Amino acid sequence: MSEQHPSLLARAVTRRRMLQGTALAGVAAFLAACGTAAQSVAPSVAPSAAPSEAASAAPSEAASPSPAASATPIPSPAAELNFANWPLYIDQDSSNPPKSPTLEGFTKKYGTKVNYRESISDNDIFFGTIRPALQAGQDTGWDLMVLTDWMAAKVIGLGWVETIDTANTPQFVANESDHLRNQPWDPNNNKRAPWQSGMTGLGFDTKVVGDQTSLAALWQADPRWKGKVWLLSEMRDTIGLTLLKLGKDPAAATNADCDVAIAEIKKTVDAGIVRSFLGNEYKEGLVKGDLVLGTAWSGDIIQVQLEKASLKFNIPSEGGMIWTDNMLIPKGAAHKYTAELMIDYVYDPEIAAQIAAYVQYVSPVKGAKEAIAKNADKTVAVLAANTLMFPDAATLARTHIFKPLSADEEKYFNDQFSTLQGN
Amino acid sequence: MTALLRRYRFIVPYLLLTPGLVWLAIFYVYPSIQMFISSFWSGSLERGFTFSLSNVHNYTDGLNHYQEQIVRSIFFAAAATVATFLISFPLAYTIAFRAGHYKNLLLFLVIAPFFTSFLLRVISWRTILGDDGLLLGPLKSAGLVGDDVRILATPVAVISGIAYNFLPFMTLPIYVSLEKIDKRLLEAGQDLYATPWSAFRKITLPLALPGIFAGTLLTFIPAMGDYVNAELLGQTPATKMIGNVVQSRFLVNNDYPTAAALSFILMAGILVAVAVYARLLGTEELMSSAG
């Protein structure tokens, strides 16, 4: 790793699962677990996140939670905003410690100090930390949080988010990509605002395996890649792609489908073709050559191409998965109005382009592509032509979403998938 | 004041124990009780958990379901302990008896790698053991091993990772007990026509036993619960240890009851193993002979 440029190294460890499987995560999870255990008896315990928050809530926003719009005077931005997001999921400049031009711009515009924390490395774990407060009807300490759609659907279903007052978010209303609108779990487009989307498909080293377009390759004992194949440890991605390979729709997955998919994956694991189930670490293996073919996230591959140009991402011929991470305002948030201002702000195409150019996932904002194309820096401007960052309709048609699972289904799927992985 | 102290002298040992006891109570006893309670839970994160003694099946279910990983953990930990011993004993022996002026330097070198973080050391082993890494790369290009041979993602990688990471915990106690050996005992043995081998067997080895005992425990116990090596060097379903199961039950599946039950099974298993081991080696006798 020593030959890598520091900034590349930093980028190579993007968000999902970054901490999972490390000792740090063990500690964090244990603390999280303790928090959950204590929730029913100790409502006075403030959630660990952003402790400075609740007490210093700016008086200017005291009125905004009231739904009676007519009686409420126009609120003004609060002094601070507590924003929880995933690691390396917003633009950063090269200063030390790095600053985010987007957040700096927000502070300049509204005078609000943004307490931006990379506190989310796993949907379930983060949810575990805010659940006690939400259940007790208290402020979680966060004004804005970013959760993947299945988790967002769950939290919305539980009634634990504030409704976005869309009068305050005209740019969100105008610029949200059409294909993200009208989700069954948010029919009015006012419970969540997409942050970024990404696709899951085939990632590989073209130098070793050539160009692979079919998921079937993951089941072939080809000497070029046997024992050097990985699958994502994210259940929905791996089971979803396996269902697509089997010609089934991941949006309608049943427990029986899960069994079939698990049996199918077991075949390639037992045959010694698949070596590991990995989160973000697959990128390291790809760069070093221990891994040459597997299931990958689009933005990741675009990022590591900087280190190894022979890497490639394909949406499989059988179809790929698409997922979206969403901004949500947790119920009881102290600075709801300011959170809405932030949502509106990042839906400004210029700002969205700034974020997209750095994180290289799929921006949910219309106009971001055009804004990127106009960038003076040519290496940034070419990103506008990248269909993995700005998928056209044909590309989107080949992607699938995973069914929002009920709690029982989710437990069943997770248990089966864990057993498959040997834990 | 002194009069007061003299009068309540019996309190002093308790006062001295207080910091340690408070520490243990807050960071060990309390979490353990919490964990014990949660091992009798049923339910889910969304709906909340409920306590019931009838959930004792969490323990039997855990044992049945994860037998393979438990057995594998015992095997990996034992193999790593043996490997550590085989490396540590000659090393400690050399440092204690033959190092001369270099004793402190050599001891420092044993510990030196541990100035960097545990995680970084494991990750750097990933580079060393990589399919075309420092170790296999040259062997492969020399044609000594086949192209499809790998060490990463095999039990060998996990066991050697554990062995490496616990090396000082074995080396240092053995060194301490060897260092304390009175050289005159060995000279006396030689005077009585003992061969070097029988002097080693009858004098050095028995006197080193307390160190070996401490070293094996310090290696075996944490190795049993280790999950980082299996996670980062193993990375395959066939190398998962019980620590990985606990981790994934806690983190991925939010199955706190099973995770807690498995933790207690692990704890109980280690206690039993250590008790048997102590019985076999007869520690008390050893400790007194060492003192």
Protein described:
The complex is a heterodimer of chains A (423) and B (291). Chain A starts with 5 loop residues before the first helix and ends with a helix. Helix content of chain A is 37%, strand content 13%. Chain A contains 17 helices and 10 strands. In chain A, β1 (80-84), α3 (101-110) and β2 (113-117) form a beta-alpha-beta unit. Mean pLDDT of chain A is 84; it is low at 1-60 and 62-70. Chain A has helices at 6-12, 23-38, 101-110, 123-135, 149-157, 170-175, 206-209, 235-245, 255-270, 282-288, 298-304, 336-346, 349-359, 368-373, 378-381, 393-397, 407-420, and strands at 80-84, 113-117, 144-148, 193-205, 229-232, 274-278, 293-297, 311-314, 320-328, 399-400. With 291 residues, chain B is mainly alpha-helical. Chain B is built from 15 helices and 2 strands. Chain B has a two-stranded antiparallel ribbon with strand order 1-2. In chain B, α8 (155-165) packs across α12 and α11 packs across α15 (283-290). Chain B is globular, with a radius of gyration of 24 Å. Chains A and B meet through α2, α4, β6 and α17 of A and α2, α6, α12 and α13 of B.
Key features?
heterodimer, A: 423 residues, alpha/beta, 17 helices, 10 strands, 13% strand, B: 291 residues, mainly alpha, two-stranded antiparallel sheet, 15 helices
The biggest sheet of chain A amounts to: 10 strands, mixed
Q: Please trace the helix and strand order of chain A, writing H or E for each element.
A: HHEHEHEHHEHEHHEHEHEEHHHHHEH
What count of helical segments of chain A does DSSP give? 17
Whole-number average pLDDT of chain A?
A: 84
What is the count of DSSP helices of chain B, taking H or I runs of 4+ residues?
A: 15
Largest sheet, spatial ordering of strands of chain B: 1-2
Give start-end ranges of low-pLDDT stretches of chain B.
Answer: none
Q: How many strands in all of chain B?
A: 2
Structure classification of chain A: alpha/beta
Terminal CA distance of chain A reads 29 Å
Main sheet properties of chain B: 2 strands, antiparallel
Low-confidence stretches of chain A: 1-60, 62-70
Rounded radius of gyration of chain B (Å): 24 Å
Order of helices and strands of chain B: HHEEHHHHHHHHHHHHH
Shape verdict of chain A: globular
Biggest interface, residues from each chain = A-B, 47 and 47 residues
Strand content of chain A: 5-15%
